[in-house]
Amino acid sequence: MTSGRRWAQVWRAAVFLLAALATGIATLIALPLLCHPRLARRWANWHRGRAGRLLGTPLAARPALRAPGRRAWADPATLRDLLWLPVNALTGTVFGLLTLLCVGNLVPAAVATPLWWAFAPEERPRLFIDIPVTGWTSALTLGPLQMLLLAALAYLALPPIARAHARICLAVLSHSTAEQLADRVAVLTRTRADVLDAHGAELRRIERDLHDGTQARLVAIAVRLAVARRVLYDNPRNEQLLEDLLRDAHEGTEEAMTELREVIRTVYPPILADRGLTGALTAVTARCGVPTRLDVGDLDTVPAAVEAVVYFAVAEALTNVTKHSRATAAGITVIRRADRLSVAITDNGVGGADDRGGTGLAGIRRRVLALDGAVDVDSPAGGPTTITMELPCRS
């Protein structure tokens, strides 16, 4: 992992844990109010969503409680929602205070090092909890030392602490086996409907392309050949007209073949059959308008459907990078772990990518979910952007 990506994880973990501190304190203050089953469900769903995104396993929210009175309290998930309240108050506050202690003490050190002299003697900043800064010697030694130690602590400790808090959240709020099965059925039902809609739209597009393009050209070729045959029968000495008709028919045949190849390419790119997934991704990254690093591990045999999804997803993502991100560099990493294929697409652009507006990212998500995969988009404002895909890859 590069240092830049690691520091991005540290920043994300710090934000996550400081938010956990805020929610832990809010839980303590509003505990009587949050004990209402419907509010507890919303509170728990919000935390499950945060934890799932941090761990790269987005989870569907539990349905909102609509049953009144005792039936709401009888819902098996309500007990887990209520259990999360004290657990979050404890873990969120403890982990958040540790993060605040680490991050918060970076600020005094950063201020004390260059500006210690601007404070009155009795108000001068203190480093390492209780050591006053009295001169340039202590400022230039203790200040950088404190910043270095706290930065190293944040670098090493904050991501695992954040993941630990997220795992605790998911452990408390995890579905029962029956709920997991119901959620899985719901996801598969939704993705099946999306796939059927996309499949119908794709068939209509292919039919339209063939009808308006290739078929029209083939009809024109047939007409020219019929005229040429008539000319050959009625006036065989008119060689110039015959030559013009046959030339037009020949050019029309080549254009029809080109259009037919374009249609075929949108169904299953021939480059995948010719060069495999690694070669196809190499060609895609080479055509990208942003310098792109490609890192592909040993993939062994990848199912054709998975290859097609990865190819189209990477092509769409790099198109978005070129058009919208204002990035100067991008990276593609493809790794196979047992029966899972992991694809990470990164760029150092301005961020802010969102798939809720029906953009190309939504199409990527539909393609991946159709194969029982998972997609996570991490694109804070200001960047960087990371799109992670996990696909089943059983040979």
From TrEMBL:
Extent of the signal sequence:
none
Q: Where is the Histidine kinase/HSP90-like ATPase domain?
A: 305-395
Name of the molecule in the record: histidine kinase
Q: Which UniProt keywords apply?
A: ATP-binding, Kinase, Membrane, Nucleotide-binding, Phosphoprotein, Transferase, Transmembrane, Transmembrane helix, Two-component regulatory system
Tell me the InterPro entries matching this sequence: HATPase_C_sf, HATPase_dom, Put_sensor_dom, Sensor_HK_TwoCompSys, Sig_transdc_His_kin_sub3_dim/P
Which parts pass through the membrane?
13-35, 94-119, 139-158
Report which reactions are catalysed by this protein.
ATP + protein L-histidine = ADP + protein N-phospho-L-histidine
Tell me yes or no: is Transferase among this UniProt entry's keywords. Answer: yes
EC number(s) per entry: 2.7.13.3
One of its Pfam families is HisKA_3
One GO MF term on file is:
kinase activity
